[in-house]
Each structure stands twice: as C-alpha cells, then as structure tokens.
Amino acid sequence: MTAPARIPVIAIDGPTASGKGTIAMRVAQALGWSVLDSGALYRLTALAVLEQGVDPADESAVAEVAGRLDVSFHNGDVFLRGRDVTQAIREERVGNLASRIAAYGAVREALLGRQRAFRVAPGLVADGRDMGTVVFPDAPLKIFLVADVEARAKRRCKQLKEKGFSANLSGLLEDMRLRDERDRSRANAPLVAAPDAKIVDSSNLSIDETVAVVLGHWSSLVS
C-alpha cells in the first residue's frame, strides 16, 4: 500500500466560479486519478444546517453537523443521507451559507481529515480554496486559478440557467464580490495562493485550454 505522503496531488485553488470543479474533474479524468470537490463538503454542511434548522451563527453546532455528515459521491453525483442532492447544493442560498460557515475554524477542522482521506493511489486532483495552503501543503503541483469577477459571474449565471434555476447577473455579481472579500479576509485558511503555486488566469481561456495548461505544468514537473 502506498503511503499517503507519496501519492501525488494536484491542488487547484481559486475563487468561486473560477472553473475549479470542471477543470479538476477533466484533469483527473485525463490522468486516471481521483478527484476531490472540497467545496461540496462545505455546501453539504450548509444544506444540512438549513434542513435541520441549526443556527448558522452557532459555530460549535455547525461543526457538529459537519463532523457527522452522512455523505457519498458516485459518478459525479452527491448524496446526503442516501438522497441525491447534486442540484440542491448548487443553489445560491446554499453557496452563500457555505462561504459563511467555511470561515469557522471548528468546521474546517471537522472536515480536514475527511478531505485528506481522498488521497488514494494513483493520485488525486483536489479543488477548493485552501487545498495547496492547508489540506495538501506538500502537493507537488499547486494551481491557483483566477478569472475576473465579471467573467465568473457570467459563467455562474449560465450554469444556473442551464440547470433550470432562475439567475440574475447583477445579483450574482454582487454576491460574488462579497463572497470573494469574505473568503480572502477570513482568519481561518483565507483564500490566497500558496507561495509555490502556478497562477493560471482562465478569464479568456476555454475549458480545454485551461485543462491543457494544468496538464502542461504537470508534464513538465514529471518529465
């Protein structure tokens, strides 16, 4: 059995709607590796908090919810207590609450071990906001994916409409700016690029082009 520290990780961090999830999944598929959508764990916690009527301002109560999440991932779908919540966790109210509770140190600690358990052979592509700085600081390749906020808001608006949700571009833009500020300024694991991260600006890149850039960085590292 390969020791976890010897299993390679590509950490992909960046702000909301920067395309991290899609890029991580495509890179993982290309390499035949596992993928971790760390944001889904925070969204699942937020959804459980909303459904259970837990006070979002009660950090210890929210951390308790995070610690006993009954979650599973199958073929890109997400299940909470056996129920498919793939679409539900993508609602904006869930995303906004996820950003708020992600600032809680107790919540981050409750989910840390669960995230690290995804590190299995032959490798892992992990996306989030602190994959390269906190969860997998020894990752041989760290990508910090950025895109201007207007481009990200348009992407998110398009995604929501394609999935049948109503979406307002100006509202999304304002929410995104607030979420960016909250993520960057929080005391616990703020959104910052690791010192050794490769900065990739996807504002004017297609998904295929962005995936190619990431795979190129990996190829140059292992060749």
TrEMBL record:
Reactions that this protein is recorded to catalyse: dCMP + ATP = dCDP + ADP; CMP + ATP = CDP + ADP
GO molecular function: ATP binding; dCMP kinase activity
Keyword Cell membrane carried by entry: no
BP terms from Gene Ontology: nucleobase-containing small molecule interconversion; pyrimidine nucleotide metabolic process
One Pfam family linked to the record: Cytidylate_kin
Keywords: ATP-binding, Cytoplasm, Kinase, Nucleotide-binding, Transferase
Binding-site list for ATP: 14-22
The Cytidylate kinase domain, residue ranges: 10-215
GO cellular component, as recorded: cytosol
Main EC class the enzyme belongs to: transferase
Places the protein is found: Cytoplasm
EC code: 2.7.4.25
Stored InterPro entries: Cytidylate_kin, Cytidylate_kinase_dom, P-loop_NTPase
Family, per entry: Belongs to the cytidylate kinase family. Type 1 subfamily.
PANTHER family associated with the record: CYTIDYLATE KINASE, CYTIDYLATE KINASE/PANTOATE-BETA-ALANINE LIGASE
HAMAP family according to UniProt: Cytidyl_kinase_type1 (MF_00238)
Protein name: Cytidylate kinase
Organism of this sequence: Parapusillimonas granuli
